[in-house]
Amino acid sequence: MTTALVTGASAGLGTEFTRQLAAAGHDVVLVARDAERLAALADELHRDHGVRTEVLPADLVAQDGLAAVRARIEQDEDPVTVLVNNAGYGILTDFIDTPVADEQRMLRLLVEVPLVLGHTAIRAMATRGGGHVVNVSSVAGFIPRGSYGAAKAWLISFSRWANVRYRPRGVVVTAVCPGLVHTEFHRRMELDTRNIPGFAWLDAPRVVREALAGAFDGRAVVVPSKRYRVVVAASRVLPDRLMAAAGRLGR
Ligand SMILES: NC(=O)c1ccc[n+]([C@@H]2O[C@H](COP(=O)([O-])OP(=O)(O)OC[C@H]3O[C@@H](n4cnc5c(N)ncnc54)[C@H](OP(=O)(O)O)[C@@H]3O)[C@@H](O)[C@H]2O)c1
């Protein structure tokens, strides 16, 4: 049997990852802070797909929450074979107007948490003969977009390296880099999205379908949708000066 542990499973892309993984027959471990939402999702997944579900409510920014998830990944019984590092959020206020403690908290969730859980998982999976680590990054990781984009860039660089390094030991590490996706992300950061054109938006099911296909195909980086692959390709050939100018458009 295979077991997938998904962080940020209570909403958005995380919920969709659990739905598609359960539909494909994986047992699932659901991690986020909102225990009620996780319990409702666990019932739905068990009912619809007959898989075994576990609810692991945890605030990943808190030491005890992170330790509990690490312990589940290290557990040899019903071992985690797929880790999806997905939990995350953005900050809307300008960098210098944001208390540095808030920046550190976001950096912890976007970088330190996937580093710690990735370290635990890659180690355990390499010992057990293989597995998958999916790191949800962003197109923002290719373009200067404040501290959020810088954090997502870390995840891309790390995943590229880890994929090459640990594939020979059966562990595939994949960075998934979506553009704008309809989830709770923008509402939670109180961003007014009314001026963003419709073509810029992707739906979570499509993003997750491409993400999982790429990960199970062994890819290091997946950019869902042709339109965002064009954006990423352009970011690689356009002069740094021009790309940095994009950062003036906002956070
Ligand atoms: N939506 C986009 O346009 C977009 C684009 C590119 C990349 N992404 C990335 O995609 C990932 C998922 O975001 P989303 O769009 O699905 O956003 P979302 O709908 O707001 O979901 C975020 C998830 O993260 C969880 N979470 C937040 N803080 C947490 C904490 N301290 N501990 C544990 N769980 C926590 C939330 O659950 P609880 O509140 O229950 O804890 C929720 O399940 C993020 O890494 C984001 O950066 C999103």
From TrEMBL:
Single GO MF descriptor: oxidoreductase activity
Annotated Pfam families: adh_short (PF00106)
Ranges in a coiled coil: none
InterPro entries for the chain: NAD(P)-bd_dom_sf (IPR036291), SDR_fam (IPR002347)
Keywords: Oxidoreductase
GO CC list: membrane
Top-level taxon in the UniProt lineage: Bacteria
Family, similarity comment: Belongs to the short-chain dehydrogenases/reductases (SDR) family.
Name under which the protein is recorded: Short-chain dehydrogenase
